[in-house]
Amino acid sequence: MRFKPKFLAMMIAQITASALSYAEEPPAVNKVERVEVVGSNIKRINQEGPFLVTVFKRADIEKTGATTVVEALDQLIPKASLEFATDGGRFAPGSSTVGLRGMGAKNTLILLNGRRLAPNGFADVDTSPVSLNNIPLSAIEQIEVLYDGAAAIYGSDAVAGVINFKTKRDFEGVALTSKLGQNFAGDGQNVVFGIAAGFGNLNEDGQNLLLTLDVLNKQPTKDSEHDATRSLDHRSQGGADNRFTGLYGGAYKIKGGTTTLLPGCEGHGEIAIDKFGNQKCLANDNLYRTAHIQRISANALYSYQFNDHFSLFAELGISKDKQEFETWPVAIPTAQAVLKEGDAAYRDVINGVKTDGKDVTISRRIYEAGLAQNDVDSDSLRAVLGARGSISAWDVETALTYSSNKSSQSRERADATKISNALKNGGYDPFLAWNPESQAKALLTRRNHEGTASLLIADAKLSHSALFSLPAGDVGFATGINLLKEKADEDATVASSRLVKSIYGELSIPLLKNLELQAALRYDHYDDVGGATSPKLALSYRPFGTLLLRGSATSTFRAPSLQQLNMSPTPSYYFYNDWARCQPMGLEGGSCSGRVDLNSQSNPQLKPETSNNLTLGLVFEPTKDASVSVDWYQIKQNDAIEKLSPQYVIDHEDSNPALAKLIKRFALDPDEVKNYPSLTKGKIDVIDLPLSNIG
């Protein structure tokens, strides 16, 4: 965790064919058309400008062989600039997010046809990112990536950059895509199908309808099927031994005695004994690396040309995403793991040793019930109705957008009441090698979790590519307003809404024939955290035809999310190393790993994050088919909203009293003190992790 303002400075050199560069081919003289690209609201001729933008056409996307947006970005964007997060164990399970320049998803703005998408219905601990799973690849005609801060153009979240997905327009005919595949190991089978059908020609018929359907079914990839991930013991490669303990068979400990394994470790791991005689099973089984994914999305895009100057457009998209994860069998909770004399599960003699009425602590997973199931469903809806056109030389556009995501999760977990009753009154024997499956499953319950997020946006903008002329050329101008209503509702954690009002303006000024200035200014007002003003200045200079020099300076901001401001304490867990206990006990690597409960907490006093961005670069185009770009950037972020790493809190417990207050520990076990005299701390019960502005 960094307590100083974030500082990122990096040199990136990139050599690409023209198919991957911003300008693929110079258009014919009689077909020059001004277009709007991400990073500016002023239409311009399709060429390099003062901002670092890469545009990928449909042909570029098809060359990757990608069948999802995530796969396409992974193939197209240089890895030094890209950061993905896709898994089922986070607070936003089942989502796939992307971040530019190592700043994470929360600092990268995702747009579809230049407009925002609703975030995932589940908060990802401290924010709620947009999931790429809801964007259909078959409908995408172009992907635009802006590597620069753009709060002056788009407002909050555009700190590290912006990714804009543009759908097909005026498409006629039918296009099919399909993919069948699996890993060489035989797992990870996947079937992908996509179809796009376009009807009508805008120029001839005055209207066009595009319908798309995308279907994906992907089986899980199993760690156990691959040599590189089969074992958790990485010592032979110079790594650590990360094998877990106590997964199979289980173990017990008579008060005052040592930990003894029950049958079941054999075939799954290695039995180890410490110097005090405590046994443990170093399990070496890995499970699933990816989930079973089923996804379907359908989209309709309609355009109607009233006349040569005005057109109506409408977009409707729905998607359903279902992901099924399997994790380790559910464990008997610590609070129910102590057997007392008189309990039905209590034994007077265990493995020939009398218990003499002493408490017996058991450590066991309910493996007879099978792997724990974690199912996540995500439903998204997006509708846009708008009009665009021209009045004299002014370009105008307005639209109303509604976007929502509803996510639900059903996760198997231990039912503490049922387990306690079964151990006290009968119904489950923890010392038995294999209880009936029906008895084991009866001890489980499902935790159902649901979250929704929605955006309602009204926007209008006005632009002029040649507001007036200077000796060096025409001055472009754009201005607009936005009204956004944001809502979030997550069961027992957050239910809130806010209104955001925005106004912005932009100028493109040719200072010299080969020197262009972009100046932009935007003001956003949030009714819960106040207002923010975001300026931007950018210059581009072309000393000769094949060389472009550019630079920009911008101030950006990111408003605290509704979850960051209003989320009630949210429970989770974390795998950690408590070296203050492990070192006195002689534990290393995976033997020191444990699971701790966390309470993530919001903070209604959070301030917006602010950033100052600097970018310098050059583009050299020796031929029309190749370009070389070198760019340097620096991002200094202040008041970063973060929660501390649980491991950081644990590691600095003794040196920082404020962090020590976040950790709640159990009392020392007298038996542990007897075996480990230098042990001074009990096991960790829970760690509180409040959000704060730390940079």
Structural features, described:
With 695 residues, the protein is mainly β. The chain contains twelve helices and 40 strands. It has a 16-stranded antiparallel sheet with strand order 1-36-35-32-31-30-29-28-27-26-25-20-19-13-12-11. The N terminus is likely disordered. This is TonB-dependent receptor.
Strand order, sheet with most strands: 1-36-35-32-31-30-29-28-27-26-25-20-19-13-12-11
Mean model confidence by pLDDT: 84
Please bin the fraction of helical residues. Answer: 10-25%
> Got a strand count?
40
Structural class: mainly beta
Subcellular location: Cell outer membrane
Signal peptide: 1-23
Domain TonB-dependent receptor-like beta-barrel: 360-645
Membrane topology: Multi-pass membrane protein
